[in-house]
User: Which sequence fits this backbone?
């Protein structure tokens, strides 16, 4: 798909430690979204997209783990195709990252890594209640928690 059709990039930041401690799942999810005045907000179960019908949105996710003590696998489900459609998990095995060096953060090292994101088409203005399913794992890929919560997405 041509890059010009991508309208918004969303990063869901999930506080894995708070989830595991029993906090409300929707309160543990923060969102960064391009094109909005507010860059970082606890979404409280709602995400506003600055996207109009015909545009595509990429949704990535990350745990708050500083040292990689937890990882999160995220699965998204749409109840219908009225507002958002064609929800697809895409991967790119050859993404280049620029990583600051520990001894000199001004020097960057390049690393190749796997990138994964959910992509979805905006087909109408409105809102839709998406289901998020998250599996939290430790460094050994052992499942230490599973969680599910709704995320109301408002497009337009």
Assistant:
């Amino acid at each position: 798909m041509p890059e010009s059709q991508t309208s918004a990039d969303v990063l869901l930041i999930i506080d894995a430690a708070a989830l595991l401690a029993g906090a409300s799942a929707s309160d543990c999810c923060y969102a960064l979204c391009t094109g909005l005045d507010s860059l970082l907000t606890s979404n409280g179960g709602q995400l506003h997209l600055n996207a109009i019908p015909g545009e595509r949105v990429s949704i990535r996710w990350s745990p708050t783990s500083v040292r990689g003590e937890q990882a999160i696998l995220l699965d998204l489900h749409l109840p219908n195709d009225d507002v958002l459609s064609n929800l697809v998990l895409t991967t790119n095995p050859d993404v280049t990252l620029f990583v600051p060096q520990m001894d000199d953060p001004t020097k960057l090292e390049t690393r190749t890594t796997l990138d994964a994101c959910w992509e979805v088409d905006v087909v109408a203005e409105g809102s839709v209640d998406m289901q998020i399913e998250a599996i939290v794992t430790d460094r050994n890929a052992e499942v230490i928690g599973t969680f599910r919560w709704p995320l109301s997405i408002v497009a337009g």
Remarks:
- The two ends are 21 Å apart (CA to CA).
- The chain has a mean pLDDT of 86.
- The beta strands are 6-14, 29-33, 41-42, 46-49, 56-63, 71-77, 84-100, 108-122, 126-137, 143-155.
- The longest helix spans residues 16-20.
